[in-house]
């Protein structure tokens, strides 16, 4: 066979036909049956067909290869044009119209032919995904449409060499943008193609056929007015939907884009859908081909959607509940999974109901899906609830403007290619921009999903007012943009919070919560800290130990008493001792270097004033003074004297009182140093003031013991006081002896120090020994332990 | 920040069959399935323990269910007895309780969205791409 040169149109046409005939999907051989049917559809005499078959070499080969098929087609065209069938004429004949195939016996062929009379776009058919226009409702429906259409179609009229009329047409479905300044007719056919393209790929050929029929109908009006509306009326009988659709299209003024929308009067959702899908897909394609937002909804489409919305929900500002929407969209025969995805995309505020905008978006997505468009991962901008309104406002004139307008937050529209991803790119940008503004809103509100939905319901309601297609939005786009922006932002915020995975709101709520949590935690932490009560203050040292003077006394008495181990703690002092020394000591140190005589009385006075316990100190004071006198005399005998003095003063005391007194006396007598120290202490206010009070204290203590026991110290007290007073004048006299007393006390202290030091060293030694023993024991234990394990 | 968190995320229905399980190291998936299954016992125990009076005040977030040497399992139960289980790597010590809570919150919100979809039948496995996206965002980025 000679080589066959085909024009582009022809090439596309032929290839599509071949694909159609390639029922076995071999891509190389067209099934004979189909081919023959096709040839028969060419309405050529059978002998001509035979001749063609022979000429193309299929007879020889026994099958129709691609080349044979093409040749055959060309020959058919030649034959149809009335030219003699010659092999030579294959290439010689110029301007040969495309072979026409009548949709007589085989509607598919007819449609296909009709389709292919639409040159450019047909070439897209071979494209895998987009090749078949979906038969939305199903084959049956499609066929039904096909047959009637085929019969009703004035085929011959339809089958016109549209190639002549049809110029470059916009690419229907392929992402490649072809020139889309398509003549009015092209969109129709285009639309058909779209219909074929969308939907089930499995229905390719039948779909092609079916749509071809419809397409042929389109053809009719194509020759006439732009709007292929005329076609529709002719096609009306089989499908009321189509009829209405047709009427709708007829009604709608031919816009730059062919009326892709179908009238809403179609009651059958399936038919409607079919028509609508076809229309919308064509619209989509047209749009895409015009480098516009492929997802944009045209006016017709929108009107159609709105009408559909009305059938479900009369109130345009209301919602379509999820169940109703589910039923509606289930009729589209899309798989549930895809419908679910569409729902996710379109239900912007995730409230389980569709507003008008959401419904339109969903419908649009369904249509697109049926026409072969893949569902986007994210809702395209033009389908966003708010944006769509903006689109409506200025859609017709400038689509790009609309897109830009609608996508106000994003400027991606201008360079938007028909490909979806561009939209998706815009989407995140818009999200970001909206998030910035919208962040404010949902933060405080969104706490729980229910609340979110409530909020979004509110937003939706507020926003739905703007969603009305015929609302003043059209009139005031700028205002709307701002108004819409706010609700849009709100909505987007809500949507962002909801639709975008609650990221922003999540962050906010999460921020809030962590913050609150932190606060609470921080709040608890100080509380916790507070709970941890400060360690109790160290127990006050035993008063007995705090006073070195007491120790001295202990030492001295302990040493002297030879009670054994010098242990200050063993010496038990009457509890009354501590308070007493305080006033005495305080008084004594306070007085300091004052006149000792004064100090003593001061101490006495203090004693008297501080507590009744101190009163008895007066007698001690008296004793002290006696001691002073004794010290002055430096005679231990003063002690006995004092004691004696005491004794007489306390003669009435019971034996108990006398006991301690005697002990005191004995102590006083036994130990000269205390007395001396006492004397010295009594006199020497500086330095060893502590020691002096000790014997005094002792006396005092004894006195105290005696006092409580015997309350007959009054006269004694008076006597003591008298003695004290008497001794007061004696104090100055003992000043001379103070130095000696001081020195004695110093010596005594040093001795006690040494004793204590010795004691300490001994104890330390004991401690060391014990530690060593312990270590040795532990070592033995360790040595024994492993053996035990064995 | 939240892109490197969980090793496995699972959604279990009220009847204790999984609605959705996804693990990041796609090998070893069975181990995570088993872990999630065993954690259900702990979840049940916590539910029964807390929901004494009416269960109204029951905290949705269950906290750490049980730690193993390799990972920790956190639980979250909704009011409809749908359980979310997150398994995180034990080496991920930077994970704070608040972050886990936020993850559960996001899961819950996404799950609510899925449930709102009229085309989703409760009881079906979750096939929502949005939900997948959210979950992927929370999984460890190992590959």
TrEMBL record, chain A:
<dbReference type="GO" id="GO:0005829">
    <property type="term" value="C:cytosol"/>
</dbReference>
<keyword id="KW-0597">Phosphoprotein</keyword>
<feature type="domain" description="EH">
    <location>
        <begin position="10"/>
        <end position="97"/>
    </location>
</feature>
<keyword id="KW-0677">Repeat</keyword>
<feature type="compositionally biased region" description="Polar residues">
    <location>
        <begin position="551"/>
        <end position="570"/>
    </location>
</feature>
<feature type="compositionally biased region" description="Basic and acidic residues">
    <location>
        <begin position="701"/>
        <end position="714"/>
    </location>
</feature>
<feature type="domain" description="EH">
    <location>
        <begin position="301"/>
        <end position="385"/>
    </location>
</feature>
<feature type="domain" description="EF-hand">
    <location>
        <begin position="334"/>
        <end position="369"/>
    </location>
</feature>
<dbReference type="InterPro" id="IPR000261">
    <property type="entry name" value="EH_dom"/>
</dbReference>
<keyword id="KW-0106">Calcium</keyword>
<dbReference type="GO" id="GO:0006897">
    <property type="term" value="P:endocytosis"/>
</dbReference>
<dbReference type="Pfam" id="PF12763">
    <property type="entry name" value="EH"/>
</dbReference>
<feature type="region of interest" description="Disordered">
    <location>
        <begin position="601"/>
        <end position="719"/>
    </location>
</feature>
<dbReference type="GO" id="GO:0005509">
    <property type="term" value="F:calcium ion binding"/>
</dbReference>
<feature type="region of interest" description="Disordered">
    <location>
        <begin position="727"/>
        <end position="746"/>
    </location>
</feature>
<feature type="region of interest" description="Disordered">
    <location>
        <begin position="501"/>
        <end position="588"/>
    </location>
</feature>
<feature type="region of interest" description="Disordered">
    <location>
        <begin position="168"/>
        <end position="206"/>
    </location>
</feature>
<dbReference type="InterPro" id="IPR011992">
    <property type="entry name" value="EF-hand-dom_pair"/>
</dbReference>
<feature type="compositionally biased region" description="Low complexity">
    <location>
        <begin position="608"/>
        <end position="638"/>
    </location>
</feature>
<feature type="region of interest" description="Disordered">
    <location>
        <begin position="117"/>
        <end position="154"/>
    </location>
</feature>
<feature type="compositionally biased region" description="Basic and acidic residues">
    <location>
        <begin position="664"/>
        <end position="674"/>
    </location>
</feature>
<feature type="compositionally biased region" description="Polar residues">
    <location>
        <begin position="502"/>
        <end position="525"/>
    </location>
</feature>
Automatic annotation (TrEMBL), chain B:
<dbReference type="InterPro" id="IPR011012">
    <property type="entry name" value="Longin-like_dom_sf"/>
</dbReference>
<keyword id="KW-0931">ER-Golgi transport</keyword>
<keyword id="KW-0813">Transport</keyword>
<dbReference type="GO" id="GO:0048471">
    <property type="term" value="C:perinuclear region of cytoplasm"/>
</dbReference>
<comment type="similarity">
    <text>Belongs to the TRAPP small subunits family. Sedlin subfamily.</text>
</comment>
<dbReference type="InterPro" id="IPR006722">
    <property type="entry name" value="Sedlin"/>
</dbReference>
<dbReference type="InterPro" id="IPR044760">
    <property type="entry name" value="TRAPPC2L"/>
</dbReference>
<dbReference type="Pfam" id="PF04628">
    <property type="entry name" value="Sedlin_N"/>
</dbReference>
<dbReference type="GO" id="GO:0006888">
    <property type="term" value="P:endoplasmic reticulum to Golgi vesicle-mediated transport"/>
</dbReference>
<protein>
    <recommendedName>
        <fullName>Trafficking protein particle complex subunit 2-like protein</fullName>
    </recommendedName>
</protein>
